[in-house]
Design a protein that fits this description.
The complex is a heterotrimer. Chain A is of the alpha/beta class. Chain A has 7 helices and 12 strands. The longest helix of chain A is centred in the first third of the chain and has 14 residues. The relative contact order of chain A is 0.17. By secondary structure, chain B is of the alpha/beta class. Chain B contains 13 helices and 8 strands. In chain B, the strands form 2 sheets. In chain B, strands 2-1-3-4 form a 4-stranded parallel beta sheet, sandwiched between helices. A 4-stranded parallel beta sheet of chain B has the order 6-5-7-8, sandwiched between helices. The model of chain B has no long low-confidence stretch (mean pLDDT 96). Chain C has 3 domains: 268 residues, NagB/RpiA/CoA transferase-like (Rossmann fold); 94 residues, Alpha-helical ferredoxin (Fumarate Reductase Iron-sulfur Protein, Chain B, domain 2); 70 residues, no CATH class. Chain C has 23 helices and 12 strands. In chain C, the strands form 3 sheets. In chain C, strands 1-10-7-4-2-3 form a 6-stranded parallel beta sheet, sandwiched between helices. A 4-stranded mixed beta sheet of chain C has the order 8-5-6-9. A two-stranded antiparallel ribbon of chain C has the order 11-12. In chain C, helix 10 packs across helix 11 and helix 17 runs parallel beside helix 19. The chains are: A alpha/beta, B alpha/beta, C alpha/beta.
Chain lengths: 228, 254, 474
């Protein structure tokens, strides 16, 4: 194993016509890594807060997600219950053990039966909290971890994701900036999921079908801060 | 326009020379009408593209050297073909990248133009006085379009032709399947590609097909005629120069 | 997989005569290219994004050793393992070894072209480990025991009836008379079958769209979500990736993602872009216990610094296939090995030798559409010519074509002789063909006249007529 490592690196250097990089050049590369620079960032996402939310909704809906915007956490249970009713879905939902999700007064909605945990085989509806949203393509960013199991994003047929309105950023670069700021430079969780619409495939005759292996429905609930 | 008329050497192209001199005369007329002095060096054969595209760089370079020599001293070298002009303008410099003659090659490349692009982009010709009754589809040849950016120029000139409507056609910018030696080496694939292209043209309702490269036009005319189509195929220069009387449409009887 | 690239011509003829394949290719022609165009038109910065993505990969290739070492160090810090493999055999051995050590009986797989390149499925099966493809298209062709025919749409060559037939043959657990007429029925059945396989798998094997040096992450891009179930559910996650996939930072990966889906399917972004970093953390509720990255060279380092260096920028989006007139005519299988279309014509000879893939660089009109749509601005036509030059220099290729070319070049270099010969021929052909305007048959040009008339020459060459007229020569 060590031999093939040396062989590969040696072959690369030989092909590039040099030995190991000199220190000065290495330092420049270290600096590039230490200060990740945004490259070309499309103008589309660089707009003010309300325009960002509008753009997020428009882009998410373009890719067959559905959205709802609510005034505060207390409005979430009713919106979820209505969504499930409208789609003839069972009212049993599996919640992520996420502070954002836990802050929702689920018990107010007696129509809902809620349990908490990671995703399992028979879960039909999962509710998770997104780290943030990215307006440029209507993308949700979810970070795996004890509060946000990846399985809950993928196993249930219906995925309901909550995202605070204030955490809809314009661009992916802003999302990375927040990840670094809030989780530390080495703070990537096992999985960072960018999710843009529900699962799909066009592998049979280029016919677009939703719900390939992941959720068939993605419902994004944008939660505004509770009125003071 | 400069006070002294530009001296243009016509690069006839091997296909025009052999198959369709009418295109050469049309090019001469267009250039002269635009105020150029046109000469045709005798010692020209081909741009060398068949050798170049077949990996025979030594022969391609040898042919290129004779082109440089034949066209020394002209202000411009103009070809009624995007493919040949592209070879000289774009590929000669690559072919001579490590050659002492690179400077001469770059000089030639800088002076070389495809006909419609020369008329519009260099001479600023806005229109021609020709007439042509018909509805035409235009085929953008790949080298002209993608190597030299020729798309608007022929259409701008055609828009000044009395009686002519140029109609947008599906697949106008897709390859016709000619590909030089490709159509010889892989005739069945080439035939399949040209058949798709011809279907678009026949579905588009035009009575005439125009283009700027005789290679593509031979291929397209050949397939159109085989399918029994009445679409008339001509090089764009013939229509622009009003010289359609010199030869019947490509592949049609006299 | 065994290559049939050396029989490209007969493969292509067969493909041209296959009406179901032609129907499928027709659908392709109206799908991806139209959607790509729309996506590009919605993104005013698209050309600048292409430049940025190209520059990132160029930077990486010039410092590939540094970034690979950094990637490896970060994977180690996260508790993962990196296995360097010089060739396909080493990679297969490593992967089979990891699976054996895990006591694996089944391995779920997310579509990986490197997996195809090293023929991992055959080797897992030979070791008594069952590989299960989970991308729908890849699953279908696995049931049919076929290779993929497209980089991102592996079953693009099939009709729904072909899929239904495969499912009836292989899914014996369902009633034989169940309805499988619609793509929806087929998808639902595949989903239910594969869901059980996901839950039962011991090892998940994925490729990687990118590796990130800054974080030791691997990037997985899918629309189905199959890669995420593949890396999340089993106890062991194995990633197999070739060495040129590394990029420096999350931002660099982001830049590449901005052009990937738009170029591939015309989506703004694929549904699932996942950045996986190491195995599950101590308090994670899910994720694998082990995380392995198999780094494969298999000919890439030899391409660095060569005329095919730029090919290493390729991100496998498939845009060049989708826009290629030759691919549109013959489909992916005709190319005979893992990679098809323009990128395959350049890459495959690098991987299996030009002597085994001689037709590939030649079977192109050099129309340039591939380079025009390539998000990484890879000069594919230039590299096809480079292969032709190597072939010519080595005396490969059919002798008659070489002699014909040499004879023509001999003439083309002697203008006076050329003028005499062409004048004679033009006179002869003109006399024979002028009245009808075209030839329907022509000796030595049977390939042309099989499908096309050959328009007749006017009869005299331009040079003769110019001399007659006394036109100026200088």
């Amino acid at each position: 194993m060590t031999d093939s490592r040396a062989a590969t690196l040696g072959a690369i250097r030989a092909a590039l016509g040099r030995g190991p990089l000199p220190d000065q050049e290495t330092a420049a590369l270290e600096a590039r890594l230490a200060n990740p620079a945004a490259g070309v960032v499309p103008g589309r996402g660089r707009v003010d807060a309300e325009a960002r939310i509008a753009l997020f909704i428009a882009e998410a809906e373009r890719v067959s997600a559905t959205t709802a915007r609510v005034a505060g956490p207390e409005a979430v249970p009713a919106v979820v219950a209505r969504f499930l009713r409208e789609h003839n879905l069972p009212s049993t939902v599996k919640l992520a053990p996420d502070p954002q999700v836990r802050s929702i007064p689920w018990s107010q909605q007696s129509a809902l039966t809620v349990t908490e945990g990671h995703g399992e085989k028979d879960d039909v509806v999962g509710v998770t909290g997104a780290f943030c949203g990215v307006a440029e393509t209507g993308t949700l960013v979810l970070l795996s971890g004890p509060e946000s199991p990846s399985t809950l994003d993928f196993l249930p047929d219906t995925h309901i994701a909550l995202v605070p309105a204030a955490r809809i950023f314009g661009t992916y670069e802003e999302a990375w900036e927040r990840v670094r700021a809030e989780r530390g430079a080495d703070g990537l969780p096992r999985a960072v999921h960018w999710i843009t619409g529900p699962s799909r495939t066009a592998d049979i005759e280029q016919t677009l079908l939703l719900g390939a292996h992941g959720p068939r429905r993605l419902h994004v609930v944008i939660v505004d801060a509770r009125a003071p | 326009m400069p006070s002294k008329p530009p001296r243009v050497g016509l690069f006839v192209t091997c296909l025009v020379d052999f198959l369709r001199p009418a295109v050469g005369f049309a090019a001469v007329k267009l250039l002269e009408d635009a105020g150029c002095e046109v000469a045709v060096p005798a010692n020209q054969t081909c741009c060398g593209q068949p050798a170049y595209n077949s990996g025979d760089s030594a022969d391609a370079r040898a042919i290129a050297r004779s082109v440089i020599e034949a066209f020394a001293g002209f202000d411009y070298v103009v070809a009624p073909s995007g493919s040949c002009a592209g070879t000289i303008k774009v590929h000669y410099p690559a072919l001579f990248a490590n050659d002492p003659d690179l400077a001469a090659v770059i000089d030639l490349a800088g002076r070389t133009w495809e006909l419609t692009s020369f008329l519009v982009d260099v001479l600023g010709v806005a229109g021609v006085g020709a007439e042509y009754r018909g509805v035409a589809a235009y085929h953008d040849s790949c080298s002209g379009l993608r190597e030299l950016g020729i798309e608007k120029q022929p259409r701008a000139l055609l828009s000044s032709v009395g009686g002519l409507e140029v109609r947008a056609t599906n697949g106008a910018q897709s390859c016709c399947g000619f590909g030089g030696t490709f159509c010889v080496k892989y005739p069945e694939i080439s035939a399949d590609i040209v058949d798709r292209k011809v279907s678009h043209i026949m579905d588009g309702g035009a009575d005439t097909l125009l283009g700027g490269d005789l290679g593509c036009l031979l291929n397209l005319a050949g397939r159109l005629k085989r399918r029994g189509s009445a679409v008339k195929v001509r090089h764009v220069a013939e229509v622009l120069a009003g010289l359609t009387g010199q030869a019947p449409p490509l592949g049609d009887p006299e | 997989m065994d290559s049939t690239a050396h029989t490209f011509k007969s493969n292509a003829l067969e493909a041209l005569g296959d009406t179901r394949l032609q129907d499928a290719l027709g659908r392709l022609g109206h799908g991806f290219p139209v959607k790509r165009k729309a996506a590009v038109e919605r993104m005013p910065e698209f050309e600048a994004l292409r430049d940025a993505a190209r520059d990132i990969k160029d930077h990486v290739l010039g410092h590939l050793d540094f970034y690979l070492e950094r990637f490896e160090a970060r994977v180690h810090e996260r508790g993962g393992h990196v296995h360097w493999c010089a060739d396909a055999a080493a990679a297969r051995e490593t992967i089979v070894g990891i699976c054996r050590a895990a006591g694996a009986r089944t391995v779920t797989k997310a579509k990986s072209m490197i997996g195809e390149e090293i023929a991992i499925n055959e080797h897992l099966a030979a070791a008594g480990i069952e590989p299960v493809e989970t991308d729908l298209g890849e699953y279908i062709i696995q049931l049919r025991r076929e290779p993929p025919s497209h980089l991102i749409a592996p079953a693009i060559h099939l009709a729904k009836g072909d899929v239904a037939e495969a499912f009836r043959n292989e899914h014996k657990q369902f009633p034989g008379d169940r309805p499988l007429d619609e793509p929806r029925n087929l998808l639902d059945e595949a989903r239910s079958v594969l869901r059980e396989r996901f839950l039962a798998a011991d090892v998940g094997l994925t490729g990687a769209n990118m590796l990130i040096a800054e974080t030791g992450s691997i990037v997985l891009v899918t629309n189905e979500g199959n890669a995420d179930l593949t890396h999340t559910l089993p106890r062991v996650h194995v990633v197999v990736a070739s060495i040129e996939k590394v990029v420096p930072t999350l931002e660099d990966a982001t830049a590449v993602l901005r052009v990937l889906a738009r170029s591939a399917t015309g989506q703004e972004m694929s549904v699932y872009n996942t950045f996986v970093t190491g195995p599950r953390r101590p308090d994670d509720p899910d994720g694998p216990d082990e995380f392995h990255v198999v780094l494969l060279d298999n000919g890439r380092s030899a391409m660095l610094g060569s005329e095919f260096h730029d090919m290493l920028r390729c991100i496998r989006c498939g845009a060049c296939l989708n826009h290629c007139p030759v691919y549109r005519s013959v489909g992916g299988h005709a190319y005979g090995w893992v990679y098809s279309g323009p990128m395959g014509k350049v890459l495959v000879p690098n991987l299996i030798g030009i002597e085994n893939a001689g037709d590939l660089p030649n079977a192109s009109t050099l129309c340039g559409r591939c380079e025009e749509v390539c998000p990484m601005r890879i000069p594919l036509p230039r590299m096809l010519r480079d292969w032709r030059e190597r072939q010519f220099d080595r005396g490969l290729g059919p002798a008659p074509a070489r002699y014909a070319l040499k004879a023509w070049a001999f003439l083309a270099r002697r203008p006076a002789l050329y003028r005499r010969v062409t004048a004679l021929q033009a006179a002869m052909l003109g006399a024979l063909g002028r009245r009808r305007g075209a030839f329907r048959h022509m000796p030595l040009a049977g390939g042309w006249t099989a499908a096309r008339d050959l328009p007749a020459p006017q009869g005299r060459t331009f040079q003769q007529m110019w001399s007659d007229r006394g036109g100026p020569r200088s």
